[in-house]
Design brief:
The structure holds 2 protein chains of 2 kinds. By secondary structure, chain A is mostly helical. Chain A has 7 helices and no strands. Chain B is mostly helical. The chains are: A mainly alpha, B mainly alpha.
Chain lengths: 137, 311
């Protein structure tokens, strides 16, 4: 069995792959620190994550050297995984109706208050809960 | 001789060991398992305007996540080197790299534990976060009630229900020493203040500002103030509970996978100097599992630590 292994796994420069993965991780953190537009940041960090995943699967998990059975196992699960998100998305995030939730009423009241009070209270809200105003999805 | 089984002309099945096929099939189910969590997190994030993202709200530390990513990547590298050493029959080297992988797994969990502690300390826990001002006021009532009840249980020991113990406070006071008597008097004062607080909360008479004032008054009381000195009114965090649930679900199940991986490595490491080629398949399959654990973290890191707040 060990001889089979030796034949089926050609030598790979694993340390080089590891260095590439480290560079990718550093890039993700750098993208977060430097100022790029939010949507570009999301695109870049997800692209880096996909690149890292490909490095790990191709070389560390030896998929580059495996037979076509890898597609038989991985393709259906990939389809089902993406299908799950696609199936959930319309009701949760793309609906036409307005949700009725206490959190939303609270947010609306807070927004109305800060508009009424103008500058001072708005600044105070910003300094406390930075994230709320940062994203407006 | 005629009974010797004929060698099959065609090799049936896939050209890989059954254990490896089993591991890959298992990893296929694992992909869907984690996608369910990550998918749920994504759609809930987009479906919840005002989802908490700031550091003050979530205590998500990008540096800790980045260091943990590096730790897992290094451990993945170590385990693949260990497998290569097993294939080359260099079992000592394989053992050393597997041991280093185990150490990195412990380091990962240690950093994760520090992150979890930060969340526990700030009460960022599912079901514990007020999402409106009314929730925050009600949570204050529950916190004070917990102190009242635990103090009563401490001062009046026994198995009776709390409402029975409350009727025994005066009786206990008559026979108690001076120190216990003072503590019972403090409890009575606190209980009175709590009853007033509870009735005001039930009648919706307390705004968040009123609750702050009421708590300050209670903390300033010379008799029972020290009992509630550590009580704080939690910050209102819309969708904080959903955030906490999804965060702990994803990272918690990932951490459980790390622990399982550690068990797989320990099962080989315990062989010590007797480690030989019989464990090569085990190391390869454990390695595949470990790389998958790494893969999950590769996606969790940007999705939890970097992207929120930017889309």
């Amino acid at each position: 069995m060990a001889d089979d292994h030796a034949q089926s796994h050609p030598h790979v420069n694993y340390f080089g792959v590891f260095l590439a993965l480290c560079v990718c991780t550093a890039l993700s953190v750098i993208f977060d620190v430097v100022h790029v537009t939010p949507s570009l940041l999301v695109f870049l960090v997800l692209a880096v994550a996909c690149a890292k995943a490909m490095f790990v699967m191709t070389y560390f998990m030896h998929l580059k050297f495996e037979g076509n059975w890898k597609f038989v196992i991985l393709f259906p699960t990939a389809v089902l995984s993406v299908g799950l998100m696609v199936a959930l998305a319309p009701d949760m995030a793309m609906h036409y109706y307005t949700n009725e939730a206490p959190q939303l009423r609270y947010e609306a009241e807070k927004a109305a208050e800060s508009h009424g009070d103008h500058g001072d209270s708005h600044e105070a809200a910003d300094s406390h809960g930075g994230g709320h105003d940062a994203h407006g999805h | 001789m005629s009974h010797a089984p004929a060698k099959p002309a065609v090799h049936m099945g896939l050209p890989l060991p059954n254990s490896k096929l089993g591991m890959w099939l298992f990893l296929g189910t694992e992909i869907m398992f984690f996608t369910a969590f990550i998918g749920t997190y994504i759609v809930l994030y987009f479906g919840s305007p005002g989802w908490p993202t700031g550091y003050n709200e979530t205590h998500i530390n990008v540096l800790a996540g980045g260091v943990n990513t590096f730790v897992l990547l290094a451990s993945s590298y170590f385990v693949v080197v260990a497998h290569e050493a097993m294939v080359n029959k260099n079992f000592k080297r394989a053992w050393n790299f597997l041991a280093a992988t185990l150490v990195l797994a412990v380091l990962f969990l240690g950093i994760k534990a520090v992150e979890y502690k930060g969340k526990f300390d700030h009460r960022i826990l599912p079901g514990q976060i007020p999402e409106t001002e009314l929730d925050a006021v009600r949570l204050l009532g529950k916190d004070v009630q917990w102190i009242v009840d635990s103090q009563l249980n401490r001062l009046v020991p026994g198995a009776e229900p709390l409402h029975v113990k409350a009727t025994k406070v005066t009786e206990t006071m008559s026979t108690a020493d001076e120190s216990t008597k003072q503590q019972l008097q403090a409890w009575e004062g606190l209980n009175g203040a709590f009853n007033q607080l509870r009735s005001d909360i039930s009648a919706n008479r307390l705004t968040l500002d009123d609750a702050h004032h009421r708590l300050e008054e209670m903390q300033a009381d010379p008799k029972f103030g020290p009992l509630v000195s550590h009580v704080q009114i939690a910050h209102v965090l819309p969708y904080g509970n959903l955030f906490a649930s999804t965060y702990f679900l994803m990272t918690g199940f990932h951490a459980i996978h790390v622990v399982v991986g550690m068990i797989l490595f320990i099962a080989v490491l315990k062989e010590g100097p007797k480690l030989d080629e019989r464990s090569t398949d085990w190391v390869e399959n454990s390695g595949l599992y470990w790389h998958f654990v790494d893969l999950v973290w590769i996606f969790l890191f940007p999705m939890i630590y970097i992207i929120p707040g930017n889309i």
